[in-house]
Structures are given as C-alpha cells and as structure tokens.
C-alpha cells in the first residue's frame, strides 16, 4: 500500500511538471510574439523620428535661404530671423536706425533685406530710395501682423494701420472734417493760441515756484489738448488723472517698441512666456485705459447728438456718418472704428509734436546766440506768419533734421511682388523707411552732424531745401496732421521765446544731445531757467 501511494505521488508530480513545462513553453511563445510586435513598432518609431528630423533639417535649410534676388543683409537664424541680432546691435549703437546705417555700409547697398521672425523685411535708405518708396502705389499697404492687430484691439481699424478702400474712405472723411473745423485756417490758429496762452501762464507760475524745471513734462498735455479739442470739442484739465495716465502709457509705449513693432511683431508667440518683457501687457493696459477714456466721451456724444452739432468736433461728425450709413450692411463706421481713429490722431500727433517743441527749446540752451537772433526777428516782425520769420522757420526745420524724432517711418507693405533699387521685393514684405539716412546724408548736407539752420536759407534769405526734409513723410500716406503739427510747433515755440529767455540754471548740467531710443526719439530730462523778458 505504501509503495503504491509513493508511485501515485510520483506520477501526479510528473503530470504537474509537464503541465507547468507546457505553460512555460506557451508563455515563451507569447513573449516571442510580443517581442516581435514591439520590434516592428520600434522600427516604425525610428523611421518616423528620422523622417521628422530630416523634415526639420530641410525646413531650416529652406527657411535660411534668401528669396531670389532679395536685397543683401545679414544671415538670419531659424524661427527668430535677425531679431536677436538687431535688438543686440540696437542697444549697443543707440537705436535701430544706426544699425541699419551700419549694415548699409557693410553690405554696400541702399536697400537691406532681412527677416524678423518668419516675416521678410526690407529697409530703404538714401533720398532716392526713400522718395521712391513714398511715391510708389505698391508700397502704400500696411502690414497685417499680430502687433498691428493688437494695437487696434484685435482687428485692423483706424486710419494709420489700414490700407485699400477702408484707408481711402476714412482718410477722406477725416480730411473733410478737419477742413470744416477750420484746419489750416484762423479757427485752428486761435485754438492753438488759446492753449499756448495757458502754457505761458503755467510756465510763469512754475518758474516762480520751482526755479528751474523740465518743460517736456508739461508740453504733452498742451499738445494733446489741441488734438482733444478738435476731436471732442473741449479741453481736458491738467489735473485730470485720465489724461495723465494716457500720456504715461503713450511714453512707455514709445520707448518699448520700435517702428517694426518690436519682438511682438516678429515673434508673437513670445507673449505666452514673457508678457511683460515683450510689451504685450503694456499694449493691453494701453488699450484698456484708452477704451475707458474714449468710450465715456463717445457715449456722452451719442446721448447729446443733434444734427446741428455734427460740425462741432470729430466725434459728432463721425456719429452723423454712422447714422447716415445705418442701413449699409458693409459700413465701416462704428464706435470701435471711431476709437481707433482717435488713437491714430493721438499717437501720430501728440508724442512727435510735443517732443519736437521740447527739442527746439533744448537747442536754445546749447546755442544761445541763435535764441537772441530768433527773439529779435520775432520782435521786428511779429509771430503771425511763418513767412515773416525765415530764420525762426529755418531753425525749426534744422531741429527736425538734426534730432530726427522719427528716424524710421512706416511700416509699409508691398502689395505685390516688385523691384526696389534693382532687387526683388516679395509680396507682403514689410518696408521700413530710414528717414535718418536722408537727414544725415553727408553727400548732400556736407556737415550733417553740425546744427546749422542757415542750410535751409538761400542767398536771399528765403527757405530752401524743403524737399530734403521729410519728418511727415511724402506721397499719399503723408502724415494726416502735418499742418496742425507745424502750426503747434511754430506757435508754442515762438510764444515761449517772445515771453521768456531760456538758460541753464547755475546748478544744472547742459542737456545731452544723445536721445533716448524708441518709436520716437526723445530727450533725456533737463532743466531750464525761464527769465521773463
């Protein structure tokens, strides 16, 4: 019995071992199948990865290639183009206009070609090239990039940032209203004179209270009030918190960006990683502040509108046009468009005009003999007409030329493939205009680094060389507010010189002629001693 039990146990054990063995064999077979599938997937993965790497390499090679007959310029990098190089050189040389002029010498070309992010850019320098860009129809477009859309609250509106039929319609409307409101005539001059009188009173009170002070701190409000009166029919108080905030944002915006739109234009994706550094948050704050300021005024105009008021200011005139086009499904007249038109007027007019007046006053400290010559001319001939004050007019022209408040103008867009300076410009290329190269042309001016108003006077004492001065541009896209800007500069400047003698205080340093970079160049703060004449 015992032997049989032992043999039964041995037999059962053999069965168990055989079953386990067969199970292991089947498992190994399954593992081989699994391994076989994984190997195929691994090979496929390697193939896909290699294909992706090859695709990226080919894309980079294509991206690095210059278009056929594209203007010469520095080699760009994948994804970012020349953006890092331009920003680095701009900080070192003191502005993008100096970078472009340096590269013009390096590549021996008046037309430069580069890439910012994924967009082609062309920079035109010298009088002939700059004038050609201004006058040719295919260069009248505006870029349609992220920065331009962000500037106008997400869509291309206003006058400055649009082109085609919309630009033509709204520019014509603005010109018509400004003309009806007395633009370039006595009503405009009286409006500016009234604001100038207010500024004179402010300077008189400040000189008694503070002694020396920087006039550039107070000029923007005066200029903005002239624009605001045209726009909204009334002036804003100097102690208005909204106007102070708006001016602060305008100045920050000017210093944060260049005429190409800065890094936001070339690499808009960077706003997700560096919203503050890229200027994205600044533009959003600017838009919000502007919307709050303007919409309150626009809503008040809507509430008080009558057809009789339609010629009082720009907002009433715009509302009239909106009502006339209520049945037009394709109308471009809306509250948001009105907001953007006002923004264009503020940006184009307030910053550049107030800065030019500031620089004209600053130059009086640097060239006191010219100040006395201007004062004598005003005393002998009065301040009523530019034509009666040729040296004063030449002085103001030299301020615009020498300091180049807007060294790079534009940006423009090539509406079709075309040629410039013998090179091919692809369609939708952004065009930047180097006005600094025209105003500092050694071949024409001889001594452009010297401040010399007489260069704008001929042998008979009359104004000359006007065509070589382009602070407001040329052609159809010439600055809409050039007449108003020139009138503000002339009236404010001559009014101040007639009432006060300007000098540097005994404890103050002379002003620095090296300006702060940005969309517009601006002086570093300086102090003036105003002595009543």
Automatic annotation (TrEMBL):
GO terms for molecular function: heme binding; iron ion binding; oxidoreductase activity, acting on paired donors, with incorporation or reduction of molecular oxygen, reduced flavin or flavoprotein as one donor, and incorporation of one atom of oxygen; steroid hydroxylase activity. Its main location: endoplasmic reticulum. One of its GO terms (cellular component) is endoplasmic reticulum membrane. Heme binds at residue 479. It is found in: Endoplasmic reticulum membrane; Microsome membrane. Signal peptide: none annotated. It holds the Pfam family p450. It comes from the Eukaryota. It is a peripheral membrane protein. Its cofactor is heme. One of its GO terms (biological process) is organic acid metabolic process. Keywords: Endoplasmic reticulum, Heme, Iron, Membrane, Metal-binding, Microsome, Monooxygenase, Oxidoreductase. PROSITE patterns: CYTOCHROME_P450. Belongs to the cytochrome P450 family. PANTHER family: CYTOCHROME P450 15A1, CYTOCHROME P450 508A4-RELATED. May be involved in the metabolism of insect hormones and in the breakdown of synthetic insecticides. This is Cytochrome P450.
């Amino acid at each position: 019995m015992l032997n049989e039990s032992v043999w039964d146990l041995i037999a059962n054990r053999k069965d168990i071992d055989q079953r386990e063995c067969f199970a292991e064999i089947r498992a190994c077979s399954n593992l081989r199948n699994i391994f076989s599938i994984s190997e195929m997937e691994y090979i496929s993965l390697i193939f896909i990865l290699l294909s992706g790497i090859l695709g990226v390499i080919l894309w980079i090679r294509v991206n690095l290639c210059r278009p056929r007959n594209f203007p010469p310029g520095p080699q760009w990098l994948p994804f970012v183009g020349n953006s890092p190089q331009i920003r680095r050189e701009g900080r070192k040389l003191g502005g993008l206009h100096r970078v472009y002029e340096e590269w013009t010498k390096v590549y021996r070309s008046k037309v430069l070609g580069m890439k910012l992010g994924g967009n082609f850019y062309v920079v035109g320098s010298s009088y002939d090239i700059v004038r050609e860009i201004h006058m040719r129809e295919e260069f009248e477009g505006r870029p349609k990039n992220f920065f331009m859309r962000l500037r106008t609250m997400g869509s291309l509106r206003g006058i400055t940032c649009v082109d085609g039929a919309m630009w033509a319609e709204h520019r014509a409307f603005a010109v018509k209203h400004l003309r009806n409101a007395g633009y370039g005539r006595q009503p405009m001059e009286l409006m500016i004179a009234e604001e100038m009188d207010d500024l004179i009173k402010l300077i008189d009170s400040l000189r008694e209270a503070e002694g020396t002070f920087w006039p550039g701190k107070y000029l923007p409000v005066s200029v903005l009030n002239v624009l605001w009166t045209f726009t909204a029919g009334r002036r804003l108080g100097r102690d208005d918190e909204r106007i102070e905030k708006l001016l602060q944002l305008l100045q920050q915006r000017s210093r944060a960006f260049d005429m190409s739109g800065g890094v936001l234009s070339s690499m808009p994706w960077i706003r997700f990683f560096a919203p503050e550094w890229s200027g994205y948050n600044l533009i959003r704050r600017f838009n919000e502040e502007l919307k709050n300021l303007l919409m309150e005024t626009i809503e008040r105009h809507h509430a008080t509108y009558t057809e009789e008021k339609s010629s009082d200011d720009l907002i009433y005139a715009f509302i009239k046009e909106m009502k006339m086009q209520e049945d037009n499904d394709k109308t471009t007249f809306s509250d948001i468009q009105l907001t953007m038109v006002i923004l264009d007027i503020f940006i184009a007019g307030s910053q550049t005009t107030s800065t030019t007046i500031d620089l004209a006053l600053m130059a009086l400290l640097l060239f006191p003999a010219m100040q006395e010559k201007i004062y004598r001319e005003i005393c002998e001939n009065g301040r009523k007409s530019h034509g009666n004050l040729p040296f004063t007019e030449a002085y103001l022209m030299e301020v615009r030329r020498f300091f180049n408040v807007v060294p790079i103008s534009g940006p423009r867009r090539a509406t079709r493939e075309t040629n410039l300076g013998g090179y091919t410009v692809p369609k939708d290329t952004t065009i930047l205009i180097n006005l600094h190269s025209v105003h500092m042309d050694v071949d024409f001016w001889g001594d452009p680094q010297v401040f010399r108003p007489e260069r704008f006077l001929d042998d008979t004492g009359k104004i000359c060389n006007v065509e070589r001065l382009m602070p407001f541009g040329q052609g159809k896209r010439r600055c809409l507010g050039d007449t108003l800007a020139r009138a503000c500069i002339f009236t404010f400047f001559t009014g101040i010189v007639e009432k006060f003698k300007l000098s540097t205080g005994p404890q103050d340093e002379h002003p620095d002629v090296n300006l702060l970079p940005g969309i517009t160049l601006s002086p570093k703060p300086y102090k003036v001693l105003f002595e009543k004449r």
